[in-house]
Amino acid sequence: MKDCESLLAQGIESLRKSDEEIERLIAPRSEEIIFLLEKYINEIKVFNPAYGLVGTNDQNELVIKHILDSLAPLGIISRLLAETETAERPQIADAGSGAGLPGIPLAIAMPACDFTLIERMGRRTGFLWNTKAALGLSNIIIEENELEKIEGGRFSLVTFRAFKPLEPKLLKTLFNVCAPNGVIAAYKGRREKIEEEMAPLENQCGRWEAIPCAVPFLEEERHILVIKR
């Protein structure tokens, strides 16, 4: 396997070639973005044994299944934000952020947006505060709280990854924290599983779409589930 740095750089290059919007966002700052992502990976490696941040100690798996997976829908998310027509800096929530995935990689790539990382576990929010300082990320806000207790109507987009499956109560909570024209963008796997998950929710949500999202070096099906009111 490739070394961690080479794998990350090649993965970022692959994403840039796959989507013009990703190219637009990354091209002017590619070296800085890769540098910050490498620092972030090192922070995870240092704290993971004690904090259980991600379910792997393999560097290549960390790069592919966590960092590149988080960045793969970058172009989709950017286009969704453009559709919200907000006059201010877009506000994005990462629900159940854990180790900061996908919020921190997205925040590194999108400095013009503000990201609120919502995490209920104090040990993990401690890691997020430390990482924010280590990387100098001024566009990150950290909230140690239950999603249900977050002030409503705040976010242009709410995203989550490796979070619990959607069910009526959770979907209602996610819509509550969204701004009136906000959207939910959930990281999901196979289309078949998404259809099973959404079938009981058809009457509760408006339009939904599962957009294919290829992750470099990963031969597994990935989608972004976009849900609008």
Give a topology summary.
Layout: H1 4-18, H2 20-26, H3 30-51, H4 59-71, H5 74-83, E1 91-95, H6 103-109, E2 114-119, H7 122-135, E3 140-144, E4 155-160, H8 168-177, E5 178-188, H9 191-198, E6 208-212, E7 223-227
Parallel strand pairs: 1-2, 1-4, 2-3, 4-5
Antiparallel strand pairs: 5-7, 6-7
Helix pairs in contact: 1-2, 1-3, 1-4, 2-5, 3-6, 3-7
CATH level-four homologous superfamily name: Vaccinia Virus protein VP39
Spatial strand order of the main sheet: 3-2-1-4-5-7-6
Report the structural category: alpha/beta
> What's the CATH topology label?
Rossmann fold
Gap from first CA to last CA: 44 Å
In total, the number of domains comes to 1
Radius of gyration: 17 Å
Given as residue ranges, the uncertain stretches (5+ residues, pLDDT < 50) are none
Query: What is the mean predicted local confidence, pLDDT?
Result: 93
Task: Explain the overall architecture.
The protein is an alpha/beta fold. It has one domain: Vaccinia Virus protein VP39 (Rossmann fold, 3-Layer(aba) Sandwich). The chain contains nine helices and seven strands, in the order H-H-H-H-H-E-H-E-H-E-E-H-E-H-E-E. It has a seven-stranded mixed beta sheet with strand order 3-2-1-4-5-7-6. Helix 6 (103-109) links the parallel strand 1 (91-95) and strand 2 (114-119). Helix 1 (4-18) packs parallel to helix 4 (59-71), helix 3 (30-51) packs antiparallel against helix 6 (103-109) and helix 3 (30-51) runs antiparallel to helix 7 (122-135). The model has no long low-confidence stretch (mean pLDDT 93).
